[in-house]
Amino acid sequence: MAGSKIKLKDQLGRVVRVGGEATPGATVGRDLRWPDGTIVKLGEIKNPAVDSSTGGMAPTLWKLIREIPSNIQKLAKLAGVGFTTRDADGEWYQRTIEAGEGIEVENADGVAGNPAVALADVPDGGGGTLQKTAFDAKGRKTGTSVATTDDLSEGAANLYYTDGRADARAAVAIAAHVAQTDPHAQYTTVSEAAAAAPVQSVNTKAGAVVLGAADVGAQPASANLTAWAGIAPATKADASALAGKYDKTGGSITGAVSLRGNSSRFVFYDDNLDVPVIDVGAGYGTATDRNGYIANRNAAGFLEVSAFNFSRRFRLVSDGFLFNGPLYQSDDNLYSAGTASARFSVVYAGTGTINTSDAREKTPVRPLTAAELAAAIELGGEIGAYKWLEMVGAKGEAAREHIGLTVQRAIEVMRSHGLDPFARGFICYDAWDELLEVLGDEGEVVQEHRTAGDRYSFRMDELLAFIARGLAHRLDAVERRLAAAGL
User: Fold this and answer.
1) Taking every annotated instance into account, which residue ranges of this chain make up the domain Peptidase S74 (predicted)?
2) How many Å is the maximal CA-CA distance in the chain?
3) How many domains are contained in the chain?
4) I need a surface site. Which of 85, 153, 465, 471 has the fewest CB within 10 A?
């Protein structure tokens, strides 16, 4: 039959168009058929089989039946597994039962069966026979642990006595005992004894007792003292330890030792010759001009260190050091005068320094390369005038100018000619670490604080020799050009 429209049974008066093969008024399960001729069953529409021949068409049929409520359509669109719930606006959601604190849930989505809710296992940290059980606010057990002796007050329920508890109980008992009035006769105070039995004599002396050294067994056996004033020995005055000097063998003397008197000093004697070999003292002087010395008895105004036969090689004066002889090291070419972070300010000398230049201690002298000669010539052009920033800060415009160049600029020039500046001895770089302040036992500063830093320096004699060779090369080139021009 030809296609026709069939009115839907709803209040909107809507219709659905069906093909010519459709049977108007057909009933599901009786005479409504699929395109293949089989009768449409109600179960195939409600729960269509995905892979069946008729079920494969069933989803298409459901999409065309517009009278299915929208909330049912939303419910059909939910994916996954779980429970469904609807809010007040008609929206559908999928939910599962989740476990809370102390709660365990089995089959939370309800797919395999009804969900089961139970209390979760709690940790059991207890051991032994004495345990402590903890409960939450709702009376549920939350765990166990090993009980301690502080969990219960002492008594029948708690017989665990620690050393601290025993000491505390003993202290309370002793305090209570002491507070009693004469609890035991054998405990007699000093005041009670003096009142009951006053002392009648001391060492056979009665009345106002005056004790001497012999009365208390303190009489020296060898000093034979006749008077306390001056502590003057009666015999062997020259050999006595009280004859004006202190003799001590071994051990140490603690605390400060002070010597008083005119020309007071420490004198160290040679035991074999019985003569002074080291003399440390205050020297001779006035009340305002005290002189200290080491191994010196007639120096004034300085501390003098003397060598053999009082040669007086070194003196420490108020404004510096004086040397009476050459100043040299114990080892050759081993130590420096000053460091990169502790430099001398100025060296005053009658003549210049003498630097070793022995051919026996050097490699053969090689000619400078073309790059080195070019760098030397350019360095000569970098020489100019400058002022030290420290002096500008101290003297302002009065600070004097000096002639030279900076190490940083010399490094740039050397590198511009492809040369390693630090492979040449006239360029130096030093760095030092921080030193922390160190205090002595009396709080005095043993080592002052020093910040970390670094500094660039020249070996100026080598730098000037390098520049001079470059200038000589340039002068030779000029002379050759003049000679070639017939000049």
Assistant:
1) 357-482
2) 163
3) 3
4) 153
